[in-house]
Amino acid sequence: MATHARARLLDTAEALFYAEGVRAVGVERILAESGVGRASFYRHFTGKDELVVAVLTRRDRAWRDWLAERVTALGGRPAALFDALAERFARADFRGCAFINTMVETADPDSPAHRVAAAHKRQVTEYVATLLAAEGHAPGPAAELARRLVLLMDGAIVTALREGTAAPAAEAGEIAAALLASAAQAGPPLEDPCAAPADRG
Fold first, then answer.
1. Residue 2's pLDDT is what?
2. Residue 35 DSSP SS3
């Protein structure tokens, strides 16, 4: 069936792109390993670029669903982000972040693949901000702290790939804990005593 052919193409392409890189894998390889014919491929995709975008779009949803599920299972607090990453890093098939890898390979920031990868990082940051908001952080500070935590997450991912160990997740988690403790000690911004009552909400 056509739906099965599309799924096989996506499954095969995702596995190959993640293991070997987008540039290294051509359409012929994907067709050979998926068992899908060329005519069927072009019924679903205009070419490799569209396939890459479809793979990233599907992986984005799956990865964020996985992250939210694991964070919830691990306690639901921001620190659980790094416990979840440690699990990911320990997997035999870990090859870093598919979205970082794509942005490195696709240097053009205006390319569709690069835009999907960048959007993924923004959505992850927004998710982290919701975790911080649930801890009582105001929207502004939560957004900035979320950006810093995602920076730590990305750094841990790249370091784990380079070193071949899950240890960077714990190290990044320790830095994150210090940031969170500092933010908690700082508390909410002081109210301006000169502000008019209306300005104070």
1. 64
2. coil
Backbone angles phi, psi at 139, to 5 degrees: -50, -50
C-alpha dihedral sign at 62, 64, 67, 72: negative
Under the banding of pLDDT at 50, 70 and 90, the label for residue 201 is very low
DSSP string, 3-26: HHHHHHHHHHHHHHHHHH-TTT--
- Domains of the chain in start order, with CATH, are 1-45 (1.10.10), 55-186 (1.10.357.10)
**Distance from C-alpha of 124 to C-alpha of 161, rounded to nearest angstrom:** 20
| Residue 163 tokens, joined | 């070193």
Q: How many CB atoms lie within 10 A of CB 142?
A: 21
CB 98 within 8 A of CB 16: no
User: How far apart (Å, rounded) are the C-alpha atoms in residues 146 and 164?
Assistant: 26
Ranges of H-type helices in 74-166: 80-89, 98-105, 112-134, 139-163
